[in-house]
């Protein structure tokens, strides 16, 4: 039989998942939670500690706990990969490489990846899916120093992030995201199984190591009927989250 603090932690997880407590909002005070569940504040603290360790909530000393993410949504401050995000929802991430080739770095590549123009960099176009349904196109340019490791990964690998960590110890630590809307062109429409000119959510991102060395930059395009983004602002927190549409 689960301990009481584990049961409370699970109830809070479900409340966060169903957006009873939305990303960016504060949980009730410990005294309120203790009264609600009929337990001591120490038991509530144990439950909250479990959610904090999972990255679902965070806190500043002397302030009430803030919801950072749910298992259905991913705060971009977490920097979880697509596969990790899918797994957190109980979904299966799929991936397939459509094209992969070396090209000389353009001026844009050079600026984003801090390389010389003309440096050979690896361009990869992938289709990503949730439970086999295509929801995302990733057009990623990898820096020259990590390109050979990426090139060696099998085309249907569900998590490139995990495979690079296993093979090289690489940890993606920081990301910068720019989000806008674009219309699907012929290639995007065919790969995602949607009508041409359908709206797509585009995220352009640069990801770096802990030391700030650029690893990749990518143009990611999500089907707007499958994934949405939300922003929750408060004085103490402004979390941008990716979640399934619906």
Q: Please, could you describe this protein's structure?
A:
The structure is a single chain. The chain is an alpha+beta fold and 246 residues long. It folds into two domains: 4-71, Winged helix-like DNA-binding domain superfamily/Winged helix DNA-binding domain (Arc Repressor Mutant, subunit A, Orthogonal Bundle), CATH 1.10.10; 75-230, Chorismate lyase (3-Layer(aba) Sandwich). Helix content is 28%, strand content 34%. The chain contains eight helices and eleven strands. It has helices spanning 4-17, 30-37, 41-53, 82-88, 107-113, 147-151, 160-168, 186-192, and strands at residues 57-58, 66-67, 73-75, 93-104, 120-130, 133-142, 174-183, 199-208, 214-223, 227-233, 238-244. The strands form three sheets. It has a six-stranded antiparallel sheet with strand order 4-5-6-9-8-7. The chain has a three-stranded antiparallel sheet with strand order 3-11-10, with no helix packed on it. Helix 2 (30-37) crosses helix 3 (41-53). The longest helix is centred in the N-terminal third of the chain and has 14 residues, at 4-17. The chain starts with a helix and ends with a strand. The model has no long low-confidence stretch (mean pLDDT 86). It comes from Streptomyces viridochromogenes Tue57. One of its GO terms (molecular function) is DNA binding. InterPro entries: Bact_HTH_transcr_reg (IPR050679), Chorismate_lyase_/UTRA_dom_sf (IPR028978), Tscrpt_reg_HTH_GntR (IPR000524), UTRA (IPR011663), WH-like_DNA-bd_sf (IPR036388), WH_DNA-bd_sf (IPR036390). One of its GO terms (biological process) is negative regulation of DNA-templated transcription. This is Putative Phosphonate metabolism transcriptional regulator PhnF.
């Amino acid at each position: 039989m689960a301990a009481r603090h584990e049961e409370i932690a699970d109830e809070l997880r479900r409340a966060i998942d169903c957006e009873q407590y939305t990303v960016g909002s504060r949980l009730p005070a410990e005294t309120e939670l203790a009264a609600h569940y009929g337990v001591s504040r120490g038991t509530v603290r144990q439950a909250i500690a479990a959610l904090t360790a999972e990255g679902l909530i965070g806190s500043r000393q002397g302030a009430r706990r803030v919801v950072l993410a749910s298992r259905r949504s991913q705060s971009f401050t977490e920097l979880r990969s697509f596969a990790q995000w899918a797994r957190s929802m109980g979904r299966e991430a799929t991936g397939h490489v459509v094209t992969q080739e070396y090209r000389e770095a353009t001026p844009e590549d050079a600026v984003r990846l801090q390389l010389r123009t003309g440096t050979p960099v690896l361009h990869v176009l992938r289709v990503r899916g949730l439970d086999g349904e295509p929801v995302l196109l990733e057009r990623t340019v990898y820096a020259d120093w990590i390109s050979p490791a990426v090139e060696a990964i099998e085309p249907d690998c569900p998590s490139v992030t995990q495979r690079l960590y296993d093979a090289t110890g690489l940890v993606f630590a920081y990301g910068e995201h720019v989000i806008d809307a674009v219309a699907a062109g012929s290639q995007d429409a065919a790969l995602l199984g949607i009508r041409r000119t359908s709206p797509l959510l585009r995220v352009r991102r640069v990801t770096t190591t802990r030391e700030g060395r650029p690893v990749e930059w990518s143009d990611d395009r999500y089907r707007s009927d499958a994934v949405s983004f939300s922003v929750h602002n408060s004085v103490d927190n402004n979390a941008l989250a990716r979640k399934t549409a619906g």
